[in-house]
Amino acid sequence: MFDTVLVANRGEIAVRVIRTLRSLGVRSVAVFSDADADARHVREADTAVRIGPAPAAESYLSTERLLQAAARTGAQAVHPGYGFLAENAAFARACEEAGLVFIGPSADAIALMGDKIRAKETVKAAGVPVVPGGRDPELADSARELGAPVLLKPSAGGGGKGMRLVRDLTVLEEEIAAARREARASFGDDTLLVERWVDRPRHIEIQVLADGHGNVVHLGERECSLQRRHQKIIEEAPSVLLDEATRASMGEAAVQAARSCGYRGAGTVEFIVSGGDRNYYFMEMNTRLQVEHPVTELVTGLDLVEWQLRVAAGERLPFAQSDITLTGHAVEARICAEDPARGFLPSGGTVLLLDEPQGDGVRTDSGLSEGTEVGSLYDPMLSKVIAYGPDRETALRRLRAALAQTVTLGVPTNAGFLRRLLAHPAVVQGDLDTGLVERVVDDLVSTDVPEEVYEAAAAVRARALEPRTDGWVDPFSVPSGWRLGGTPKPPAFHLRVQDPVTYTPRGTATVTHDTVSVTLDGVRHAFRRAGDWIGRDGDAWQVRDHDPVAASLGRSAHAGADSLTAPMPGTVTVVKVAVGDEVAAGQSLLVVEAMKMEHVISAPHAGTVAELDVSAGTTVAMDQVLAVIAPHEEEGVVAE
């Protein structure tokens, strides 16, 4: 076993790897940019090396800096986590050339399976069924030959980034261009492939483990059908769809796929499965540890990071396929920095209050701590909450309860949405497919603010207005609602959550430094609080003061319907217009990217570009004005 391992990643996966290194008695080395100098993964490692200034997303991808950090700390091996470096053949080869062990498969296996086109050809030759499709440079012709719907996919990467489902071939060229931009931004390679889309498919993957002595086993499957924008948000093991015969058949196909590329280490073979007849087709192989690996760990009792290390150190697998058993059920939820009330756009901010559940069948893998600044440079996933039970019903119930106990105030997250999703009848019954979340999303997201939220917010505001003195209190400083010549009127508070409201409390409340409870119509509601945030059951609301007079006096073109504002903090990557251009309603004008996700900004109405305040490369804050579109005067209407 190694003495020292450098972890070439950040956030929750770095913390996760460091935990296993600690349990094995292996010294861990973390790396960090200035923005992460006090991050949790830095504090939990045995030592840490600065590799770049802030902000510096590129620092974590710099082969030169990472190899220098390994040399300075005496590391013998490098664990890449599950970021881009984990599937970067050039990085794996550079580690080997520097005398370091890359904890993962060989560079050749990464290159082969990282190219989805070559991967499909290789596993097809090994007898594994594949989805019909085509590739560059005949991409558009192949798509038209397959017929709609088709799925566009980057050849060089995964994680749903750059994937586009095209149901209308009249917009094929536009979708191809957008997919190429996202693929280039995410993977540095805009090569695409196209596949026939299987309607209402299930996404089921098989975990494989291989040593350097020719032994390959599979560790069962994970159901990953609950997705948004082709990205997994809930995963479970085992799948309720598979019977023993299908599980064995898919497992053997995954083993053959691993053997076909001379695989070593932990990897995942992903399949599209028809829910009706259980026919399955190879999609891709991820040559790394997966985000959802904890559910496999809980049902098999194996630490996959430990076995990555042992295999990389040259050990043989001490178990055969017949020794692998699946016991109980596990479900994982991915907590992401995104705002369900704003269409799941990436969010950001400072973590003001953090509570993460652990114990009693619940595990949280997280890189967060109070004070963590969540920006737009990195992937939006913050943590994973995993629950285990003797059966699926118990695991689901425990995970819903754990998500209700999850508190992340200061940064909007999807925790409350995931809790409601896990209670949806189709999910409870196991009737899943990759389009389910999009079909039911409107039932699980509400922009309406419950009255008790305003009641709690008003109680916090009233507490803040109370005079802070141990002596005499000026009665005119107390918000009592006192009026000259009249009965007291309860004070009203001008607040903004989604929209501005004027709210008069009508219940009772108790406020402490980090909690607030209100009783309304005989029902008690308890919230956690920090700054201007309150939360419960995984949901959180930012409640701001609203000055209606100032808002009225401050109205301008920038605050009206003519202005286009940034829907999320990020970077402007494309600007398609200039001041003075005539635009049509719905025309695409700009593209803002955050956390490797593109958002198109379109014209709200026909008009003229009156202002353009950004250019390609501009960093923008949420709600920052990007442009102003002066509407065309209606025909026959004369301006005063």
TrEMBL record:
InterPro entries hit by this protein: ATP-grasp, BC-like_N, Biotin_BS, Biotin_carboxylase_complex, Biotin_carboxylation_dom, Biotin_COase_C, Biotin_lipoyl, CPAse_ATP-bd
Pathway: Amino-acid degradation; L-leucine degradation
Catalytic reaction equation(s): N(6)-biotinyl-L-lysyl-[protein] + hydrogencarbonate + ATP = N(6)-carboxybiotinyl-L-lysyl-[protein] + ADP + phosphate + H(+)
Domain ATP-grasp: 120-313
Lipoyl-binding domain span: 550-630
EC number(s) recorded for this UniProt protein: 6.3.4.14
Catalytic EC class: ligase
Cofactor(s) needed: biotin
Keyword list, A-Z: ATP-binding, Biotin, Ligase, Nucleotide-binding
SUPFAM superfamilies xref list: Glutathione synthetase ATP-binding domain-like (SSF56059), PreATP-grasp domain (SSF52440), Rudiment single hybrid motif (SSF51246), Single hybrid motif (SSF51230)
Molecular function as annotated in GO: ATP binding; biotin carboxylase activity; metal ion binding
Residue span(s) of domain Biotin carboxylation: 1-442
Organism superkingdom: Bacteria
Oligomeric and partner information: The biotin-dependent acyl-CoA carboxylase complex is composed of AccA1, which contains the biotin carboxylase (BC) and biotin carboxyl carrier protein (BCCP) domains, and AccD1, which contains the carboxyl transferase (CT) domain. The AccA1/AccD1 complex forms a dodecamer.
Function comment: Component of a biotin-dependent acyl-CoA carboxylase complex. This subunit catalyzes the ATP-dependent carboxylation of the biotin carried by the biotin carboxyl carrier (BCC) domain, resulting in the formation of carboxyl biotin. When associated with the beta1 subunit AccD1, is involved in branched amino-acid catabolism with methylcrotonyl coenzyme A as the substrate.
PANTHER family: CARBOXYLASE:PYRUVATE/ACETYL-COA/PROPIONYL-COA CARBOXYLASE (PTHR18866), METHYLCROTONOYL-COA CARBOXYLASE SUBUNIT ALPHA, MITOCHONDRIAL-RELATED (PTHR18866:SF33)
Protein's UniProt name: Biotin-dependent 3-methylcrotonyl-coenzyme A carboxylase alpha1 subunit
Organism: Streptomyces alanosinicus
